[in-house]
Amino acid sequence: MIKKIAVLTTGGDAPGMNAAIRAVVRYAIHNKLEVMGIFRGWWGLINEELKLLDHRSVSGIINQGGTILKTARCPEFETEEGQKRALNTIKKNAIDGLIMIGGNGSFKAAHIFGTKYNVPCIGMPASIDNDINGIDVTIGSDTAINTALAAIDNIRDTATSMERIFVVEVMGRESGYIALQVALAGGCEDVIIPERRFNLENICHDIVEGNLRGKISWIIVVAEGAGSAFDIAKKITEMTSLETRPVVLGHIQRGGRPSAFSRTQAATLGEAAVECLLKGESDKAVSIKDGKIAVIDLEFAITKKKLNVDSLYNLVKVLT
Amino acid sequence: MIKKIAVLTTGGDAPGMNAAIRAVVRYAIHNKLEVMGIFRGWWGLINEELKLLDHRSVSGIINQGGTILKTARCPEFETEEGQKRALNTIKKNAIDGLIMIGGNGSFKAAHIFGTKYNVPCIGMPASIDNDINGIDVTIGSDTAINTALAAIDNIRDTATSMERIFVVEVMGRESGYIALQVALAGGCEDVIIPERRFNLENICHDIVEGNLRGKISWIIVVAEGAGSAFDIAKKITEMTSLETRPVVLGHIQRGGRPSAFSRTQAATLGEAAVECLLKGESDKAVSIKDGKIAVIDLEFAITKKKLNVDSLYNLVKVLT
Amino acid sequence: MIKKIAVLTTGGDAPGMNAAIRAVVRYAIHNKLEVMGIFRGWWGLINEELKLLDHRSVSGIINQGGTILKTARCPEFETEEGQKRALNTIKKNAIDGLIMIGGNGSFKAAHIFGTKYNVPCIGMPASIDNDINGIDVTIGSDTAINTALAAIDNIRDTATSMERIFVVEVMGRESGYIALQVALAGGCEDVIIPERRFNLENICHDIVEGNLRGKISWIIVVAEGAGSAFDIAKKITEMTSLETRPVVLGHIQRGGRPSAFSRTQAATLGEAAVECLLKGESDKAVSIKDGKIAVIDLEFAITKKKLNVDSLYNLVKVLT
Amino acid sequence: MIKKIAVLTTGGDAPGMNAAIRAVVRYAIHNKLEVMGIFRGWWGLINEELKLLDHRSVSGIINQGGTILKTARCPEFETEEGQKRALNTIKKNAIDGLIMIGGNGSFKAAHIFGTKYNVPCIGMPASIDNDINGIDVTIGSDTAINTALAAIDNIRDTATSMERIFVVEVMGRESGYIALQVALAGGCEDVIIPERRFNLENICHDIVEGNLRGKISWIIVVAEGAGSAFDIAKKITEMTSLETRPVVLGHIQRGGRPSAFSRTQAATLGEAAVECLLKGESDKAVSIKDGKIAVIDLEFAITKKKLNVDSLYNLVKVLT
Question: How many domains, in total, are found in chain B?
């Protein structure tokens, strides 16, 4: 029987991480477990920065962006020495299992560390990028999409009023998920994503042709991994002689009050993650798959996610 | 081959109905169909209030609440005469199929009318109540939940600052779906829903006991179908002598800018609905089931939805 | 030279109170003062619930609704005994002056207490009601108006789509300030306020006449002090036979993230309040009057505010 | 007696322009005037793109960003020939006066054109830059500040969670107004504005010193006219070796649902502008000055606005 678990947040922060911490802590305490909070991700595990969390310590955070446990990059965790120091913290503090709240990179680290040192690790997917395999939607992703969409709605006002072209860069280094969702929800005229080759000449051709028909305002969404809004806007201006403005949404997509969906997800996945440890599972991720809670192997979760982008892309184009 | 379809919105308006109309119209036009928009739901079908919609007629509405086609109650559509007049409009205008955007009551009407008069009817689920069977989430439901949640977040500020008890009534005549989601996402202390008996004495006992431990602020969510915030607040005050305030969120949950999810849903379901008519299907509803697009029988969709409320309810209680 | 001051929040909470506390604490510390935070308003002064606040203790609260010092009603403060106990706390803790953040009722109490016991008291106006004389806008009022306006915008979607009449009750027991601002900003068809007699028959006449012209949706804002949305909606239905729905916005107007204006106001008034105490002033309120910081007598501030409502009311009617 | 006026929006769009158009149109019609709407600013005046606006033509726009009259740059209006063609449109359409809704540049053009050709021109200040002299706040400015503030609040979540430095660029080519308001309301650590020299070495010194005290997250706001977020972030990284991220808010600040204040301002200034024309005034701007409606000379309004930035800047620094 396990008695004490630890929870940490790693990688970039995502809205709903605090709701996830709250769920893990309270569900664990309800099941007679002690919960340690580790600060600054793997760094805190290596440097033994942790403290016992009680029921009250997670009060009032459910609707706050960011993470009260903070998060940080930690290259040292990739070294043998770093990992051994982390293991030492775990043993010294009699920690029976880890719940790691984070994204793809963090899942990889958890998989390597957990299997190598035989530490039960359960991953909770929280990342605005939604780039974890076997998982419909990561915690925070729905919030980030709504934040980006609100920005697009604002830009649409100017695009329409000033009859201009905008290229809006959204997050997504390897995945066009946010870009596609935002383009579809925002009624955008085109979307450029890493999963799909694009031809700027075709886009410019469409723009010029639309212009002749009287369709003068245009918003093109680009995932950061597929190109730079600045470069693309510059090229469109060159090719079409039409004024084109770049907007890079950047870090505003990362923070903010989590949406209802990001929070309920955090609650149900927090329950599932603690249940995994209670049942003695390890090297797993909890997930919402096909609309239902599922437990998948970390090894599978860290393989490259394949998004079926064509049908959504075509729908964006048909509806515009 | 069908050539002309009609689209209408019925029942209470829901955020995302406009995005749904836009999707239906543009996807249909892309497929060489003509689309008639019928005004004020069944009433417009009976009274022949309709007009041809083109690509431009649905511009700039994707992010607007309400419905440009308007909606209305229509008891006349339950009569033989009303139905015959509706049928007459359909024949006169050479309409080959109807796409009906609405909720449970509207689906029932579509099922009866479509089968009786052999008119191809496809239902698109849009309702903040999320009370349609075989459908994970209706269009508008995610938006309504986020609106109610923002209200709850605001109320929490006062509940905490003034150390008070609030009873917040949310929509849901027959379903506790919104109430449960909001309670879980809002970190609420209790939730009262139609699907589950509640005992006010137990709730008051919890409140008084919490009070002794220093837990003084309390938000109880109630679905309108399970009780009145005014009555419950009054009884809690009587039973506990603690100041308890009712808040009825009411119609603010119905309108507003649709969320990203409500809009992407509207787009994909709009495509699916038109595809159904193109394939010659009838008496069906398009749906997102287990996270995927599905086509289900209207007859099944109108049977009573059974929500598994116990696990969510227990999670609300454990996490508070 | 004063060395130590105390700050408290009293009456109903208002968005921006936390930003005000932060400004007072940090501006005072910058001026070498010690600052005590008193909990639950006058109650904490009577019961000696207070603690020293440092720079860090007000971190991360600038954008949070409510008040970290909490607030409560305190009838005991109106008694001789209560006041003497409060005075005792002040003397025992060597407090040289009080900054009281609150509304009209709290200003009255501060005026009585400060003059009677010779305690330097400076009032900072924070109240969603905007009912303090000599003060353009209280802290929190701009936020409350924006919250109510967002609700009205949502209701407009349904009013237009379903062609209905809504009566929306907003805060304002003695003042129609919020109601007028919201009605003007929301494009509402009428507004009922305490400062102005209204004639429901005239309103109903307008509605029926508008109905004949095709103007079917209607939003009437009512300040809570001028009538009940339920009663008014019921009477309109009776008089016009048109479906009329009441919405009571209630406590959602009180909380939430403070607007930019509520926060900058809190900052500049916090500076002004501490400056008053540094200069040896007492029995004053800091204020924004005619767009500029001003210091006014508490005695004047608590006299009945006279709002010039007619020009705004007429503008609402002309523009609708 | 004047009989017909025209209204146009020029320069960059600002939230509240639509509310301003609505107010002008309806107040004018109420006073028995005809109102022509001119499309795309001065361009439409030159090219005779205009149409009669009735009461209904401005329905449903009060809460929409952008401008239904559209706006455009028009270098031709600076030429003699352009101006003569504009005059021709005015004469041909029997327009007795112009209401021009726009910013500083547009006011200059209105002043030159109106005095040279003896056309009564009244300016309504609408611009997110708030750079018009003699005017407390332009229409749209309050909304833009709130939009930028929401972005800053989001970024704060990440700054705190990841303990990072952010440089956030906001609008303001010649004015630090938005930057100062946002920095004060957002609790930002520093702000760089055109009106005030800044020394990056001092800022870096503060950052490093703060870092040693444990203050690790930092948000520096920069007005676009005072520097580039990219350049400043790069230099801070070089000077301090601390990871610093730039964010350029850009066009998201321009659009969106106007705030209550931007809308009520639009209403009262719209009334004032029409009143000016009714009274035979010309070459004036309507303004809110010291919290009250005022009418000022366009000649004065276009002189450089001098903002007293030092007191606000110091307050930002003291409160951080």
Answer: 2
